[in-house]
Each structure stands twice: as structure tokens, then as C-alpha cells.
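WARN retry 2 of 3 for item q-0093 after timeout on previous attempt; input resubmitted unchanged.
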Amino acid sequence: MSVVIVGGGLAGISAAIALQESGVPVTLVEARPWLGGATHSFARGELRVDNGQHVFLRCCTAYQGLLRRLRAEHLVEVQDRFDVPVLRPGAAAARLRRADLPSPLHLLPTLARYTPLPPVDRLRAVRAAIGLARLDPADPALDMVSAGRWLAGHGQRAWARQALWGVFLTSALNADPDDAALGLSAMVCRRALLGRADAADIGVPVVPLEELHGGPALRRIAEMGGTVRLKAKVEAVTTDPKVVVDGVPIAADAVIMAVPHETAARLLPAQALPDPLRWPELDASPIVNVHVVYDRTVMDAPFAAAVASPVQWVFDRTAASGLRRGQYLAVSLSAADRWIDMPAAELRSRFVPELRRLLPAARGARVRELFVTRERRATFRQRPGTAAARPGAATRAPGLFLAGAWTDTGWPDTMEGAVRSGVTAARLVRRHLEGVRDR
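OK item q-0093 returned
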């Protein structure tokens, strides 16, 4: 029994390792010269630069399980306690920090002291949180409503939706709260903020993503007897099942398509696709990162959020990138439609002054270098109505399966969702192979 996995992102890596742990031989085919998919790094002078800033939460158990299987769990750091400085121009930094109390009381003290909101809005935020906790994220009706509309109906004025709820939801869903689906928003809030007290503790890589995902995955799959083919172009998939790679067909007992939805729709045979095909409704939402290297330290925290500013989150990448002198900050901009086509020079003219407004120490610092990375199709567009377009792992063709954070994982399009999709696809493949053996 053999399985071909098309796509070497976290979904494909997770599926490959899960199958090989069950004794199923795997061939992993990836078009790019690296594994890791949307989580990769590149060299720029002395720096090792991640294509975008990726973090996870303590509640992301599947992703942390993958790190253990890759023997890479020591390459991340997780907060002892959820703690996020919130920067504002012209004001002292606020703080979102969980208290040493059981859930859901653990966030009440920080909400009560959250100075970006007037006291009346803090009270309303507590009431809205109680209402969110009562929602069922799996209720299809929730997918037809935006989080912003629901929050507004529960006393959350526009400023509160941006200065509190947007801090979490925009980065988690790559969507503004007013545009994000309520079902996924409720899932994020219930699982991370209103679940276990430690669920929202933030984890960050301490090495480039290539060293965290791609390199360890390549070694681990090889150690377990699997085959990885990089820079290999998949031209077609048939119902045999068979995968045509660089003009050569590879027969398999099962195939997992761990690729973006538009690629899966192009490569899979018509017999495997749903009718009607709704995947194009998922569309794509961009993320932009503005990378700024200073000649000195300008921010003490490892990361911070920002409100009343075009800056959303800023991360200290100095140690992870290998920078020896100065400080390297990465400004992460989710739901970045307004920024995605803006020239780097204009982004510089906007964000360098903005960082000076937020970080007093930056006012006397010199910018040694600034560059921009753009992910035009970073995630699917997690807006109302998209839940019904997300497919399960099984297709209409026996032996052909899907994986990827865009599939119906119950999670947003995140690293956790990608890993869960790969594990689910591997489980269905094992069941399929058992049926083939029985025949």
C-alpha cells in the first residue's frame, strides 16, 4: 500500500508523518524547493527572514503535537501567561493580561482596566463575552452573520470592535471583525479567550520557520522511510488513483491533495469535485509584513499589538533572524487589501513615522533597512457564507482526499487548522486502505 501526497505545507507534512507512523509508505511531492508551504524563510544579507510572522496559542494542540513529532518543540517559546502590550499613539501602553483565576474570570480584571476603552464599553465587552460563550460555532446560522454585526447588536460600538475585538479577530481570521464570519469568530473567542484559562498563551518561534518546519520535516520523513520530491510539478491526478509528476505517472493506492483550493480544483478530475463546485467562493485574503531594521533597540517587548494605528502587531525578530547589531522589527498587517499593492517606498513613508509615534525610542533611531513581504493568498476570505463552501477531507472519487486549512476543519485558516486537516486526511486514507486490503 502506498500513498502520494501532493503539497508539502503543514497539512501535507502532518498527513505524511501520521501515515508513516502507521507503517504506510508515503511519497510527498512539492513544487517548491522547500517544505513548509506558507511558512518558509529566505536569506537577505545577514538576515534569515520569515515570509510572514506566525504564532500559535497554547490551545493549538495539534500543531504542538506536530512540533513534537518533528523534534522541534524546543524551538518555540510559549508565554507563562497570556500578556500583550497594546500600544497607542500619544498614550501609555495598555495591557491585556490574564489573571491567575479560573476561566472565565481570568480575563475580567484586564478588561476592567483596559484603558483604550471607556469604562462603559469595558462593561459592555464583558456582557458581549458572556454572550459569545453561549454561541455554538457549529450552528450554520452563525456563518451567515458577520461578527461585527453581532457585536454591534450586543453593545459593541465601532471603537470597541476595533480596539478590543479586532486585536484578536483580525489576526486570527485575517479579516476585520465587521467582515468576519460570526461562527469562526465565536469559535476563536470560545476556544482561546473563554475556554481554559491558559488557552490564549502565545507561542512564537525562536528560529526561522525553515528551521522549525521545513528542515525538520524533510529529515523526519526520510528517517521514517518516506520519499520527498522537491521542485516536482504535478500535472494531473486521475481516479486510478494516479499522479502525473513531470510527465511521469505515479500509481498509488490513495492520494491526498494538500494544496490550495484553486490548485486542487485545477488538478483533480471532475469525478472527484463536488457539484456544484463552491470552492471559488472561498477566494483569498492577503497579509503584508513590513520589516524594519533599526540601528538600536527601540522596543523591549517580544511583541505588541497596536490600536488607533495602521500598525496591528509588531514583533521583535532580532534573535531569530540572526541580526547581530541593532533591532529587527516585523509589522504584521492582516486583512491587508489596502496595503497589498502599495509600493514599498509608500509603505515606508507611512509605517516608519507610525512606529515613531508608537515607540518613543524609535524617534532617535536610524532605519538601517526596510523591506516588504506580501502573501496575496495568505488565507481564504473568512467571511459570512463560506462555511458551506469548505469541503470535508473525502472527495467523490474513492482514494482521492483533501487536506489544507481551507477544508472543513472547524478551525480558521491557521497552522492549527492545516495540521488538523492533514491528520484527518491520513485517518480517512488508513480506513480506505483497510477496505482495499479486505477486497
